[in-house]
Amino acid sequence: MALFWILWSFNALMSLVPIYFFFVGLADGSITSRNIGLWGIIMLVVAGVLFGSLWLKGHNHLSLAKIVMILAAVPGIFVLLYFLIVFTSKARWN
Fold first, then answer.
1. Residue at 93 is within a domain
2. Residue that wins the pLDDT comparison between 62 and 90
3. In a domain, 84, yes or no
4. Close Cβ partners of 70 (under 8 Å, ≥ 6 residues apart)
5. Do the domain assignments include residue 14?
6. Which residues in 43-66 are b (16+ Cβ under 10 Å) and which e?
7. In Å, how far from its chain's centre is CA 63?
8. pLDDT tens digits for 22-38?
9. Domain extent at residue 40
10. Is there a domain that residue 94 lies in?
11. How far apart are CA 31 and CA 53, in angstroms?
């Protein structure tokens, strides 16, 4: 049970990234009628993962909810690992 909430919290924090860029894009006008459909799909997937996992947990499918959370957490883990390597290595990136 604790693993589910850890994964859910991590995914909730990672979902703030596309939500932030969505609202910034709305504010600066870079989200237009040409790409609002793609942004809608992205927002539906983000909401679907978070609320779908809660729905699965609520209907006694905890293992399936954990699998959904793990699959959604993999890209965020890779990004955090990348930034950890960039910030801790003394390599010259120019």
1. no
2. 62
3. yes
4. 7
5. yes
6. eeebeebbebbeebbeeeeeeebb
7. 19
8. 999 999 999 999 999 99
9. 2-88
10. no
11. 28
